[in-house]
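Lecture notes, part 5. Sequence design as translation. It can be helpful to think of inverse folding as translation between two languages: the language of shapes and the language of residues. The source text, in structure tokens, appears below.
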């Protein structure tokens, strides 16, 4: 029995649009695309028809053949050229091109464009077709979407009269020292917009009152805009959590490494810790990075690949599972060939599903014992990060039948990795998981 597909109610991203473009080329149906992207098939249909663009077959309208007119077979027009004595139909005239004169000329639309996928991306007759072309391109669709989103949210959604009425109501009260929240609550029936919008109007100088008339506004620091790195189109293609589960079911003995970043008080732009967690033995590596960016992550994996060698790297990091952080969205950073035709595979958790790598998230608690939330990592060194990792890995776990991750790592991981990362066992009674460890 067919089941109704429920979308995830989120806007399409550039990555989603890149996957749509790839799937059009491969001849996927809208239903298949919808299932792959967790969307409704009508969403896919609207996306393609809304953001397809025209590529004319002819350089201008006057260059078109008369047979390219949609009305060619039924046209009865005469005397378009001004010769009233001519008895011939203009569409049959040999000396004059009716498409040059006719105001009703309408380009003939290819019948393939009237049904899915509504574009010419995968058409086998593309090279010999004489119709106009319509294409879907992810970058063009994303740019069009961003432009519409931006233009729809810009400007002032008020008439001059209603804006003047608001000004006369709000500005005198603000200048009396009343908080905007108080004004909004006591005059809610007279104000036809939200409180947040009123702040925006004041910021845009739409009122005679200005930011200086707001008691606390001028004391706020401007928000820092987070710079996100450009997304690699289609980076999740074949690398979703469902793909991960299917791969693990077929290769149960492969080495799985969960990866994440732990931030300090300064956020992504200040030093952070890259965490690598080996599922087989709950062993964790910590790497101090200058910031949470793609270049810093690449530096770590360049170091591991160069130091371990292709074969050992591929064996230890055969599968990596991580989230959708911007610093992890370039699969080429991790998927490196071992020289024998196979390579490391990276998979991405579903958005907002950190529980899919829950063992690593749980292990982060040990880091917070030593580096509590709200503490900056600016003064931290790699030696200190390694020291924290050694104490965490020397902590016995009930889930490991009383063993420590370090003891199991000696049995299950390559000792070259432990030596490279300066991993060392800490005697049980000397294990310290307090901020005093770094003093």
């Amino acid at each position: 029995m067919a089941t109704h597909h429920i979308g995830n109610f989120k806007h399409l991203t550039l990555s989603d649009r890149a996957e749509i473009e790839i799937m059009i080329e491969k001849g996927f149906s809208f239903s298949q695309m919808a299932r792959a992207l967790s969307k409704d098939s009508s969403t896919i249909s609207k996306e393609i028809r809304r953001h397809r663009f025209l590529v004319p077959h002819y350089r201008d309208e006057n260059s078109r053949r008369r047979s390219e007119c949609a009305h060619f077979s039924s046209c009865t027009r005469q005397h378009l050229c001004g010769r009233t004595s001519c008895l011939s139909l203009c569409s049959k005239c040999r000396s004059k091109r009716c498409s040059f004169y006719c105001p009703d000329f309408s380009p003939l639309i290819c019948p393939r464009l009237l049904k899915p996928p509504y574009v010419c991306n995968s058409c086998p007759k593309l090279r010999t077709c004489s119709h106009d072309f319509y294409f879907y391109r992810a970058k063009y669709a994303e740019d069009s979407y961003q432009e519409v989103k931006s233009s729809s949210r810009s400007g002032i959604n008020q008439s001059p009269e209603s804006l003047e009425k608001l000004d006369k109501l709000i500005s005198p009260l603000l200048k009396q020292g009343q908080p905007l929240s108080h004004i909004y609550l006591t005059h809610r029936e007279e104000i036809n917009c939200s409180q947040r919008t009123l702040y925006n109007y004041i910021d845009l100088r739409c009122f005679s009152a200005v930011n200086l008339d707001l008691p606390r506004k001028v004391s706020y620091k401007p928000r820092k805009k987070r710079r996100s790195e450009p997304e690699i189109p289609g980076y999740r293609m074949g690398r979703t959590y469902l793909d991960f589960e299917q791969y693990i079911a077929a290769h149960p003995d492969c080495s799985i490494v969960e990866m994440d970043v732990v931030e300090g008080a300064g956020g992504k732009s200040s030093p952070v810790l890259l965490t690598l967690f080996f599922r087989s033995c709950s062993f964790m590596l910590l790497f101090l990075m200058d910031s949470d960016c793609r270049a810093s992550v690449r530096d770590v994996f360049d170091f591991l690949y160069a130091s371990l060698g292709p074969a050992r790297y591929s064996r230890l990091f055969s599968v990596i599972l991580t989230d959708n952080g911007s610093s992890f969205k370039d699969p080429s950073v991790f998927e490196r060939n071992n020289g024998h035709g196979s390579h490391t595979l990276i998979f991405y958790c579903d958005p907002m599903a950190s529980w899919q790598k829950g063992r690593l998230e749980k292990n982060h608690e040990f880091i917070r014992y030593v580096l509590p939330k709200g503490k900056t990592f600016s003064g931290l060194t790699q030696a200190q990060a390694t020291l924290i990792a050694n104490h965490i890995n020397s902590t016995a776990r009930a889930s490991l039948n009383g063993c420590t991750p370090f003891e199991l790592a000696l049995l299950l991981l390559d000792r070259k990795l432990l030596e490279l990362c300066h991993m060392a066992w800490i005697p049980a009674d000397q294990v310290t998981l307090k901020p005093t460890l770094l003093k």
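The translated text above is only one of many valid answers, since several sequences can fold into similar shapes. Residues 138-153 form the longest helix (16 residues).
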